[in-house]
Design goal:
alpha+beta, Heat Shock Protein 90, 4 helices, binds adenosine-5'-triphosphate, binds magnesium ion
Length: 129
């Protein structure tokens, strides 16, 4: 981990810029709601987690477009970041195995690693704290 203090609103703006063309092409509206928070994190790893989860949402829209919301709010000494979308939701059959590696559903070419990577980054972040 290469942790540094980062302004979360600015980092999410950067995420939005990096994905501008992707969102335009996919007809996705991204809404970010975050207070002016400075958090200590590994920027590249954080962006990887957000990218994996947001890409899942875009793929679940299945070319129909949709809305993705990212919110961040303080939770005791942590900051809670939530990512939600108005797509069809996680298929019932895989909900309890969602974060396991190689669990993929209704998708051509999905490896099922996106959420497993997100989880492992999240846990190493917590362990390192
Ligand atoms: N936002 C979402 N909406 C609906 N289903 C989702 C969403 N996120 C994940 N899923 C479901 O969970 C499965 C697992 O997601 P995960 O990111 O781990 O793998 P993947 O997207 O299939 O493959 P990869 O990320 O490796 O390309 C997906 O195949 C999809 O069925
Ligand atoms: Mg994925």
């Amino acid at each position: 981990m290469n942790k540094q203090p980062v302004n979360l609103a600015q980092l999410l703006q950067r995420f939005e810029r990096l994905n501008h063309v992707y969102f335009q092409y996919s007809q996705v509206e991204l809404i970010t709601k975050t207070a002016d928070l400075v958090v200590c994190l590994d920027q590249n790893k954080f962006l990887r987690v957000v990218q994996n989860l947001v890409t899942n949402a875009v793929e679940a829209f299945d070319a129909g477009g949709g809305r993705i919301e990212i919110t961040a709010e303080p939770l005791s000494e942590w900051v809670q970041v939530k990512i939600s979308d108005n797509g069809p939701g996680i298929p019932e059959e895989i909900r309890d195995r969602f974060f396991e590696a190689f669990v993929t559903q209704e998708k051509q070419g999905g490896t099922g690693l996106g959420t497993a990577i997100a989880k492992s980054i999240g846990y190493s972040e917590i362990d390192a704290a």
